[in-house]
Amino acid sequence: MEKGKGVMVGGRRWAVDFTDYSTSPSSRDVPDPPGFSRASQDQDDSTLSRQKKDAESNWKSQKAWEVAQAPFKNLLMMGFMMWMAGSTVHLFSIGITFSALWQPISALQGVGKVFEPYKDVKVDLLGPKLLFIALNLGGLALGVWKLNTLGLLPTHASDWVSSLPPAQEVEYSGGGIPIR
Amino acid sequence: MDIRVFLLLLLVLVSSVEHGFSLYEDQVGLMDWHQRYIGKVKHAVFHTQKTGRKRVVVSTEENVVASLDLRHAEIFWRHVLGTNDAVDAVDIALGKYVITLSSEGSILRAWNLPDGQMVWESFLQGSNPSKSLLSVPGSIVQINLKVDKDNVILVFSKGFLHAVSSIDGDVLWDKDFSAESIEVQQIIQPPESYVIYAVGFVGSSQFDVYQINAKSGELLKHKSAAFPDGFYGEVLLVSSDMLVSLDATRSNLVTISFRKEEISFSKTHISYLVGESLGIPVILPSKLSGILAVKFNTLLVFIRVKSEGKLEVVDKIANAAAVSDALSFSEGQQAFALVEHVDGKILLTVKLSHDWNSDFLKESIAMDHQWGLVQKVFINTYIRTDRSHGFRVLIVMEDHSLLLLQQGEIVWSREEGLASIIDVTTSELPVEKKGVSVAKVEQNLFEWLKGHVLKLKGTLMLASPEDIAVIQDMRLKSSEKSKMTRDHNGFRKLLIVLTRAGKLYALHTGDGRVIWSLLLPSLRKSGSCKHPTGLSVYQWQVPHHHAMDENPSVLVAGRCGPHWDAPGVLSFVDTYTGKELNALGLTHSVAQVIPLPFTDSTEQHLHLLIDSDQCAHLYPRTSEAIGIFQREFSNIYWYSVEADNGIIKGHALRSNCIGVVDEYCFNSSDLWSIVFPSESEKIIATATRKLNEVVHTQAKVIADQDVMFKYISKNLLFVATIAPKASGEFGKPTPEESWLVVYLIDTVTGRILHRMTHHGSQGPVHAVLSENWVVYHYFNLRAHRYEMSVIEIYDLSRAENKDVWKLLVGKHNLTSPISLYSRPEVMTKSQSYFFTQSVKALAVTSTAKGITSKQLLIGTIGDQVLALDKRYLDPRRSVNPTQAEKEEGIIPLSDSLPIIPQSYVTHALKVEGLRGIVTLPTKLESTTLVFAHGVDLFLTRIAPSRTYDSLTEDFSYALLLLTIVALIAAIFVTWVLSEKKELQEKWR
């Protein structure tokens, strides 16, 4: 698609504008045909579309709540997997833990995208979004907790001390048995 | 965090593989080398012509009896006798047995000549070894005495004359001389005679002759004659009936005719004989038949003994080095070899005993002056193709090397000095310079390609057995490991070794070849330095900043004389060129050399030399060094362990020496002393941390993420004392009266950090101290077993630092310098285990950063090196470790330490006469070089936690490359396919 567009832009000689401007009179230079009233048509459709929109927004908010609750299942699933993985460090448990950390983070990054289809003036997405975020944060917390049980979090003094070099001594002493 | 992950992974890796070190058969020789030596030759006996094989049997100062190939200098067989079993004499009997007399003449052994198997051994009982032992000047072996068809060996030792059958070693008869007051000098059996003459002195002025029946050992006759002037030294047999000695004033030669009815003496004044006064005469012990060699300083005078004891000077030789014994060859002719040094070359002359004026052979041989002077000559004859007699000589040089000369050439040489290494240090190789010549690469391009094709075949398992052999050969002779430049991993280094002969060698760690050798001029006999001995070798200058244009150098410390208050000598040697840069004859003695942890601007290490008057001398003697030293002056201490008196003393430096104007000399005062009660404790072993040891961390993480702080101090001294009663022989003391006490002492303050007593234990004690632990080996009399113990020492004063937040923001004092005068509170843990072997040496692996886990290197009694994981010597081991402890890698406690056959570092080889094990860290953290030296040399590379930071040698790069290529191809193919599919979908 991108490529095609580029070619068109570069080599345009003539163009036919097929755009339908019927709904936006202001941008049109050509006057409306006689006997045609734009306003009356709008009024006719308004009730119908309002009903339609209400139904749609209802459906959207319902769907948004559903989407917001989806991570909960994930959470349970993850919990089960973690329990299965055990608390020793090996490939499986590390993989599970990191996926458990990664999933919420990526989900949180894409909060806007997830709720994009349900965006509507009338739908209040704040509630589902907060739930979604909360559940994902829960997932993240579970992941971090797992990381900690695996001993991979620097929460102990040993994690900070073990890389410290030994202290220098002020005094120096040498010697021993005299060389015979 | 990543370190922790890494360490944990490492731990998992390690604990899953029990035997971290083991080799496959085809890996032998890839990273290890082994060299066999015999030591400085004392005696050499050539095989007789009839046996056909060109061999020589030698005995050496390292107590080795060996048979060498005269053509290639290979060792056919070799036996290393114990350290207390010095070989006194060696000879060949019956044409098939090598007879050796050892242990001051008390053990006689026969070895089979072709293969060196022991045939028999007999213990010759001496008299009570009180007075007679001391008065016997040496043991005398007389072999090849024909009695009927049986060869009888005559041995005089410890006051007894023994006749031993050479077939089975049975003592046929013996004659006790210990009751008489005679000091037997010679046992003489004239050919075709059944009479043995035992001659010797009674007191200093009486000469006695005993005639003994060779068959039965009964005394036939005893003659005695007084010589009022007295004798000096030993007697020499010049002919079958004539002996020569010096009189008590050492100005007269005395000839003794002992086979006649009456013993007759004849005295000749030396200055009258020689014509002038030349100094103190010494009779050389060479048996030259009718001729006597007397040495005056450098002048050698040959004197012929004529009938009736008349003496006549035959020749005077100014630069003579050595004279061989006379060798009889065809028709009773006798020849001997004489070696002289003439302007840089050596002149070998073979003369016939009866005809002095004609030289049978005169050869001048150019010789590497690094071998020094000739010390011993052994002559042998062979028959040339034109049936005439040719001679070859075996010479022993000043640096202990052994050379064979034949037809004016050096046929071979053996660097036997390497059998007696005193000290080892290391040096980096030069940095690789840019601009390798293209021609060299092109020349080898075909070879290189061929090699890689072969290797690829090997990896793909397409190689034939011949190919595999070629591949193996290529691996072993890889030029990569013997290059003369530094490598990325730091495997290639120079080992600088100092030998007992005062010679310095540089060995390449890749293949063990000698890069250069230097007979140190300052450690050779000279007017000012009569008996020089080398003591130790240190790294003097190690350039890092100027590595491209400056060469590293080493410091060799020595002293002029056998006593420790003799003046010292220092020598500085460039390790790349092997040239002596500078030599200092010191006015003070060298009792201790203390390398200080400071360097000056030219990266020379500061050294403190302590003399016998407890004065400290600073080297290098520059004002800059003194400036650095003055800054740290008050923090420098030293200590001395007086093992004989049972005192350990600590000293501090005070001020410049009084009396001498020398700003580099400092007085010291006693700070503290620890006196061990002499009736109950005797110091037998000490151990300190190696100066170059690097410790990665001060904390030890134990189960449950807890931390223990190691007590890491460079000033820690381990001392072991035993009960004086238990210091004698093995088996003498009872468990009740023997004990072993170990101490951990801070050498700055003299504080005893830990003291522990092992009741019922005795030495010898071998100990090694590293990081915060010490491991020692001793004998437990109660259990009748050897034991090894470990002590770990922890610092309690830092245990408070456990707040994560404080650590996070860096609010702790764990890395700030500490003073030992703060007397940190310590805690120790220890544990003991049985160990089935006795130990000759103990060392520990050391790595560049100190991260890798440690292994103990145990030199076993079988002259092998065993690697034992430090985890086996962990005082936190318990019978039932908890899950957390198991995760940590703690091994369940067992009463004895396991010896896993695969963990012998020396695999199938032996390092005969093992004396020391040195570990050298490489740049690659996982790896360390292990150098074991004794009579043999052995070097290998070990990785205590496996090579976790590099791919193994047998890693298949070809397979990796193939996989990558295949993957790229797959990516390409799938990409093309997907493009096609996409296009098709668009057309749909």
TrEMBL record, chain A:
Keywords: Endoplasmic reticulum, Membrane, Transmembrane, Transmembrane helix. GO terms for cellular component: endoplasmic reticulum membrane. It is a multi-pass membrane protein. Its main location: endoplasmic reticulum. Pfam families: EMC4 (PF06417). It is found in: Endoplasmic reticulum membrane. This is ER membrane protein complex subunit 4. The lineage of its organism: Eukaryota, Viridiplantae, Streptophyta, Embryophyta, Tracheophyta. Belongs to the EMC4 family. Residues 19-57 are annotated as: Disordered. The keyword NAD does not apply. The chain crosses the membrane at residues 80-105, 125-145. The keyword Kinase does not apply.
